[in-house]
Amino acid sequence: MKRRSADVAAAVSGVLRALSICAPAIILGPTPAMAQSVQPAALVTDIPARPLAEALATFASQTGLQVVYVSDVVRGRKSRPVPAGMIAAKALGRMLQGTGLRFEYLTPHSVRILAAAAPRERASGATAPDELREVIVTANRREEGQQHVPMTVQVLTGAMLASLNASTFDDLVSDLPGVTARGVGPGQNNIYVRGLATASAAIQGAGFGGSFPNVAVYLDEQSGQLPGRNLDIYAADLERIEVLEGPQGTLFGAGAQAGVVRYITNKPKLDVTEAHANTGYAITAHGAPSSNVDVTVNLPLIADRLAVRGVIYNEHRGGYIDNGPATFTRANTDLGIRYAGGSVPANSVAINNFALVARDINPVTYQGVRAGVLYRFSDDWSALLTQSYQNLEADGVFAVTAADSLGVPQPDLTTQLYNPSYDRDRFENTALTIDGRAGALKLLYAGAYLVRNIEQVQDYTSYARGEYADYYQCLAPLPGNPASAQCFTPSSTWHDRQRNTHLSQELRFSTPADWRIRGVGGVFYEDYRIQDQVDWFYRSATSYFTPLAPPTGYYAVNGATHLPNGDLVRFFTNGAVFVPFPVTSNNPNVRLPSDAFFNDITRDYKQRAAYASLDLDLVPGKLTLTAGTRYFRSDGSELGSSVGSFGCKIVPGQPLPPNPCVNHSLSVTLDPRGVAGRFAGFRSRANLGWQLSEDALLYYTWSQGYRAGGFNRDPNGCLCSSPLAYGNNALATQHGGWQTPAAFAPDNLTNNEFGWKTTWAAGHIQWQGTIYQEDWDHAQIAGTGLIPGGIDINGGDYRVRGMESAAVARIGSGLTVRVSGVWNHSALVRQAVFRWADGVPIDFAALEAATGRTILNPSGEVDSPLAAPPFQGSFRARYEFVLNGYDAFAQLGATHQSHSLTTTDRLKPDLQGGSTAYDLPPFTTFDAALGIGTDGWQVKIYGQNLTDARSQLYANYAQLYKAVTVGRPRTIGLRLNYKFAGR
What we know:
Distance between the termini: 33 Å
Helix content: under 10%
């Protein structure tokens, strides 16, 4: 009797507990007409993708059907968009596609929503329905189905990233046609979209002087741009990565001139306890092994109120580049040997790297943790606090020495380093997002603070062959004593320290997605700062120099820092008076004896913006007009100093330089020059979308993008041997020479595109494409062969005409095929106009005749292309099947990239006089994977770059030898994934 009573009590308790959580069921909508006696009501207007509960409420109000469901069933799920005119049953079925739910009629006028008896979720996290699922994206700052967004949006979901075995940016970029990365290692890339790439400056010092990227990188709501160094976020526990192509200046601001790459993380879930673990091991041809592990945990702490989610990861990738044995000996062909008397002195020092010879010198490690806390105040308001840390450590270099500083080709996958080299890149990000509603409006506040610290050291010994190196490393013979000439060690390095802080705050509102006139708008503020200190340690004749120190003031004539002709007042200028000024360098101390040159500069930008975008349904469910604009104001400045060693050498018979060598020679204090600028204006977009049917969308878009301008460290620096310099030829002297600019202006992009997104074969095939023209005006370019390094200018106007297309097909119940391709034709359509100091335009043909050498306009030749591949394509097929009761798959993929140039600069030569505008050959890579598993686990074996192709991704001459960044050799790996989920 006691046992029976206990059973009854347990049963009653269970029922009451279930009712307290789930009941009463939500019943929406008025009494409908009888479904069997009248035609079911059709939708009057579109129901866009949105939280499922909201979509069902709109559906009920339009159709008159009562919709019954348990609240937990729909929580956290999103609907698929449904067009107007669709009958009730078909509309509801389409709305629920991809949610894991289904519906059934309870009565002719009511339906119930419940879990679908669908194939169980696979270990990758994705189910395998016969019909393709549509991905929800937020490209327009509201949730929409990818197939219904009128722009090109490439998406890699978490499941797709897992299937690609992609965890870093270098992994995933190959599967994004139209996106290229040009750089020298992990976290050291410039990202380009649709071929909008010019010349890339050297990585050292890019923080203080380089152009900002024209593609923005976002971690959720926080942008993280840095010149020359992409924020390489490890792809653990990501919901998806979105790539928005074309100008996004209206909704995303100055950094999104050509597009946006958005890393969107998984958020804490209030209704489920789950854990995921992934681990793997891989071997690389010609290289060392790799391993990885990451663990994700989601824990609800207070039912329906508070949850936490965290992920921790550690991946070590073995190196594959060897440091080969080499000896560095000076040659009579070295450009600066004149400082040693015109030939290499007999007692000059030669060095070797035998102590550093090693295999696989370029390992890289990603370590990090991310934790989020979500608190739901009510059904309408919630707050999410997220903290992220990541440490990227990359040893060695990731560009092989294709040819050394003498132009001698080197063996495959080797380099020649004479000093230890490494890159340490750490960031932390704190983000607070508050999401809620005020009446009908949805409000969002996003505030974030990013801190990124970089320390990089690299061998720079090849600088010893440069034009001025021997001034710092050699002693000229004394009169009558040729044997007194000598050269000290050529061993050199540079050391770069960067600290980037980025505070951003945004308040955004949006109207309900089912309004005929709907909109999104907001205000934005950011405070962005880069502190960059670069020291070049190539001064080896240290006993004959006084050390450097930051300037403690500046020189002026009659209170002015510049002469009437624009020249900077120096210590040797007639009538110059020294004016004390506070030291604003980050490091105020005297530098080491071997430090021959340093830049110690703080670059600051503050941006304020307000934006709005409206959608108007001209014909509900058929024709939509979108118009938006953004007003921005950007205030920039630079503080600090640029200091060199010319004039700091102790030369017999000449006055001794000060010790330390401060306020002397090439010492420049930026502060009194007033290095500041303000850029303001509007950037807008317009779009017309035509929904031909529920499965076909056509659209036309006009949009504008922009990129902030910047400053040059020393606009009156030495043009030296340049034919543009005063005194180097009669024409330049006649017109006063050419002055390098103190600042370079923003460049602007205007985009026109026509696109389509279609679904065929009852949802089994999706095909989309875009035809576009992008006009890039006054493109920012780095210094060329006529202009010294570290100087940026505005070049000419480029035009890109292109087409991209992508298709995915679900064939039968298990085979999915994806194919995509991008073709771009780029050309310079207008050269920049350069003017002499007297204002007369420079005639480069006349200058060429005057100098007797080939002189081209620094912005390039008309019709010359941009530095990006004209064609990229990819193919991927995945077959899923059941094997002895287990879920199995086989996958095959291929990517192809055509030839491309590394830079638009056709003027800069190498030390042997050859062009450094390298032509990278085309390449094709193949990958494959096999896997098997169940709901809770999966094991797979994969292979990448199966043919061991030596893909050349980028080449540069920044370190005075031809360095080629190559793709990772053939890699074979094994991965095991395990997950647990429960309520």
